[in-house]
Write a structure and sequence with these properties.
Strand content: 5-15%
Helix content: 40-55%
Distance between the termini: 54 Å
Radius of gyration: 27 Å
Structural class: alpha+beta
Number of helices: 23
Length: 557
């Protein structure tokens, strides 16, 4: 691995000038390295961070990728990581014309990292420096504690998807003098909508009343607003205080809770484990936004590498090669999903819609397909709109807002499924739906969404830690429950309970019959009774490294 040559660096600096002229914003300093395919394989398990702490799983991944490369050799173009300065890696056999395309792609990634709100917590420090310090710390602990360090890493990584990522963002985005306090959030989001269930016109009037108080009384506006609220709703303060106590008791960051409250970890001889857990936790939080913005991030980079490359005079004579490489990255598959292709097409679609003024209520009211096609108010707000989206949206918001029927029809998208051909005894792929809501749901189902696990301290008895899985339509992966709870029991130092939902083992026809039966849910496309899935709440308990399971209550959906 070595730095790129001065000739290639000059190409990169030229790309930076053109990218900034187009509106992209990023730091001046960047580092670019030339790497071989072997380097790529060895760095990939470490998320391309050379200084990341060592762990045995990384060695396994390297061996697996080496075996795959022997069967299916390929040359990845680049990888860029969100550090200060941003570091990118390039394959050692890329020609200059390809590097121009790749540099634009990388610069758009850097622009996204350094301007998207969901990366806010990564802007203030250099991950590579922190990772190096963490690596040295873990190496030192390994020399003292031996294999127990790897046990703690493994147990911590088993629940590192339950870190308080959004709590971290909230802390950064809300200062002590923020315009919207927790009291106001509770009043508008919970009290009025869920407790009082006021009508929309009343809700809007309350917002207007708050704004009037701010305009008239400035810094004292909020206190004046709630003084009047106390007269109208005398029960509000008591409910707000109660909600604050409940919120503190329901910390969703499991690793942080264990470090703060575990008697086992807070013993003097075990405090070193908390340092290891904090390394795992901080690393997980750092990479959370990259998982949650995959479609937007790759779509944004693909959008700009195409747009800027076609305007760059340095690539004349290589248009055909570019078209072939670009199509290989951004082609939309007929079955499945390509995040590069979907994200790029969504940005182009939104830009066109905003330019024509179609992101408006007047356009949404139109039902006639011809009028919708001809609608053009020539607003010209497309570029500003996509830059605003780049700053404020994540994948869920992006897909849920803009994947509509117009987008699906324009790109001829559909949801595919499979069914068994009884005559030939083979699976057939068929078009299941061309509706936007079905395609949107397919994409949303593919997004990263960790389980919603709450800590129920009120229900915990003695030294028992109780976890509640808030069921959202997807069960936990049962094969991982035992090992994960074993790790939590070790870190907690006592019994651990987990309440979750599982598919009822009985068939609907045999429920209540007393006859034991085991039922396997039908495969996609296979015939089966509508609404056949039945769920029930079960309680797992890990005590003295033994797992038990009991049915708590039926829970159907």
């Amino acid at each position: 691995m070595e730095l790129i040559s001065q000739h290639t660096k000059k190409i990169m600096e030229g790309c930076k000038e053109r990218a900034r002229d187009a509106g992209l914003r990023f730091d001046n300093e960047t580092l670019e390295y030339i790497v071989t395919n072997r380097d790529m394989i060895e760095l990939s398990p470490k998320v391309m961070i050379p200084t990341l702490y060592d762990y045995w799983v990384q060695d396994v991944e390297v061996l697996k990728e080496k075996g795959r490369y022997e069967l299916y050799p390929g040359n990845p173009y680049e990888t860029v990581i969100n550090t200060r300065p941003a570091i990118s890696f390039y394959n050692d056999n890329n020609p200059d014309w390809l590097n121009v395309m790749i540099f634009y792609h990388v610069l758009a990634h850097i622009d996204f990292f350094q301007n998207n709100t969901f990366f806010r917590h990564t802007w203030d420090f250099d991950l590579t420096g922190r990772a190096l310090a963490d690596k040295r710390l873990i190496a030192k602990l390994r020399s003292e504690k031996g294999r127990w360090v790897d046990y703690v890493i493994e147990f911590s990584r088993g629940v590192d998807n339950l870190v308080g990522y959004f709590d971290e963002l909230s802390r950064l985005h809300r200062s002590s003098q923020a315009d919207c306090s927790r009291r106001l959030d509770y009043y508008l989001d919970v009290f009025l909508q869920q407790v009082k269930k006021v009508k929309i016109n009343q809700y809007v009037k309350e917002i207007e009343r708050f704004n009037d108080c701010r305009r008239k009384y400035g810094e004292r506006g909020e206190s004046t607003f709630f003084a009047d609220t106390a007269v109208k709703y005398p029960e509000f303060e008591a409910l707000f205080e109660k909600s604050s106590r409940v919120a503190k008791g329901r910390n969703r960051d499991l690793l942080q809770f264990l470090m703060d409250h575990s008697e086992f970890l807070n013993k003097e001889e075990n405090k070193w484990m908390k340092m290891v857990m904090e390394v795992v936790r901080k690393t997980s939080i750092y990479f959370q936004p990259q998982i949650r913005t995959k479609i937007m991030n790759e779509g944004w980079a693909s959008y700009w590498h195409e747009k800027l490359y076609m305007q760059d005079e340095r690539i004349r004579g290589h248009e055909i090669e570019f078209a072939r490489a670009h199509a290989g990255v951004t082609a939309m598959p007929r079955v499945g999903m390509n995040p590069y292709a979907l994200g790029m097409r969504l940005f182009y679609f939104i830009e066109e819609m905003a330019d024509k003024g179609k992101l408006s209520y007047d356009f949404e009211r139109l039902l006639d397909i011809k009028q919708r096609e001809k609608y053009d108010r020539n607003v010209g707000a497309g570029l500003k709109t996509i830059f605003d989206l780049r700053e404020n949206f994540c994948d869920f918001m992006f897909v849920n807002t803009f994947v509509d029927q117009d987008f699906v029809d324009k790109n001829k998208l559909f949801v595919a499924d499979r069914r068994m051909n009884q005559e030939r005894m083979t699976w057939e792929i068929y078009v299941k739906s061309r509706k936007a809501e079905d395609y949107r749901q397919m994409v949303l189902d593919s997004l990263y969404h960790p389980p919603w696990i709450e800590l129920d301290q009120e229900s915990s008895a003695g030294k028992t830690l109780k976890l509640i899985h808030r069921f959202e339509g997807k069960p936990l992966v049962s094969e991982y429950i035992a090992n994960t709870m074993l790790g939590i029991e070790f870190l907690w130092g006592g019994p651990v309970q987990l309440e979750t939902s599982e598919v009822d083992a009985e068939t609907p026809a045999e429920v209540g019959s007393g006859a034991p039966a085991f039922w396997t849910p039908p495969q996609p496309g296979a015939p089966g009774p509508a609404g056949a899935l039945k769920w029930r709440r079960v309680l797992y308990e890990m005590k003295d490294r033994q797992l038990s399971r009991v049915v708590v209550a039926p829970f159907t959906t």
